């Protein structure tokens, strides 16, 4: 019962894990240390038109062009070598052309704290990159095409915030920023950069690097909404000159769902490892119990057969030869028949060890195996010693050990 419950729980955990990764918009996959795929989510299947069954066991070289596969392999090796996550942009060929992804790769450890797989989570930013590029072009000549910039600015689905580089005051936001942070337009324009970040020191360092042209993307930063909620963001940054002011432009995307998915994956991975370990312990215990049961069964069978042959049947044979009346002989024969019927299943199992031997030879072989001498066997079976010697020769012949220096009792012990 405990084993079945453990298996059911493990199956439910796997189903829940697959449900989580299949319902995210990110591409999620896992590969073993040799680069062979062991898991992909529904988004991966849809984008690359390949099923889980088709991709399992394959490498990137089997799916993508050599150059792309080589880049994927090198990034996997970085994770395995340095034993820590890496984030990067990568270009992947699709049927409709090249797509750009923001990817996070990280190691997965087993119960011995050893890496056994690499997991990747990638977000397609091709459209956003195009918008960012367009936005950069538009903001570079804002004074000439402010109307077009305003149209792009207002329709962008990601939050856009413009900040005065000198005062760090917010000078403009789009509708997506209002929705994400929960402020009205008027409230936003009263805020500074430090009012929306939950990590002021890190954010100020990022602003300085942006003004120096050293930073274009902030992969992870925590921001704060109007109601105090802290959430995870990914930010693309740049700056331009507008009406004699240096303006920092931040395009902010809420990555809370992605981070939650990563955390859920980590938790489920730990739970699966714990349940797998528990199942192994249960299986080991069951094997020990089954082995003990088989040993006990064999011992009972041996005892029954030995007692029937050595204690009961010799007594019955003596009764037969004691001159019983016809009525007594009938009773003795009925008794012998019942005893043989009860012991017959065990005789059959023992007989399979001695294929080709007659019933009498099987009796003699078992008595030899139990250490009985020729004289003792002749007395127990009411046969002459010469007859027992004759059967011993036949047994050796049928067991193919005649004329060989092999002890018959020792040999019989090894095959039983």
List keywords for this structure.
416 residues; alpha+beta; Beta-Lactamase; 3 domains; 5-stranded antiparallel beta sheet; 15 helices; 55% helix; disordered N terminus
Distance between the termini: 35 Å
Low-confidence stretches: 1-11
Radius of gyration: 41 Å
Q: What structural class do the secondary elements suggest?
A: alpha+beta
The proportion of residues in beta strands is 15-25%
Q: Helix coverage percent of residues?
A: 55-70%
Summed up, what is this model?
This protein is α+β, with helices and mostly antiparallel strands and 416 residues long.
Describe this structure in words.
Helices cover 55% and strands 20% of the residues. With 416 residues, it is an alpha+beta fold. α1 (2-22) runs antiparallel to α10. It starts with a helix and ends with a helix. Mean pLDDT is 80; it is low at 1-11. The chain is rod-shaped. It has three domains: 18-124, Beta-Lactamase (2-Layer Sandwich), CATH 3.30.450; 128-254, Beta-Lactamase; 297-415, no CATH class. The chain contains 15 helices and ten strands. The protein has helices at 2-22, 42-48, 52-55, 66-82, 126-140, 146-155, 175-181, 185-188, 200-211, 256-320, 326-351, 359-369, 374-381, 385-398, 408-415, and strands at 27-32, 37-40, 86-94, 97-109, 115-124, 159-164, 170-173, 217-224, 230-242, 245-254. The strands form two sheets. Strands 2-1-5-4-3 form a five-stranded antiparallel β-sheet, with helices on both faces. The protein has a five-stranded antiparallel β-sheet with strand order 7-6-10-9-8, sandwiched between helices.
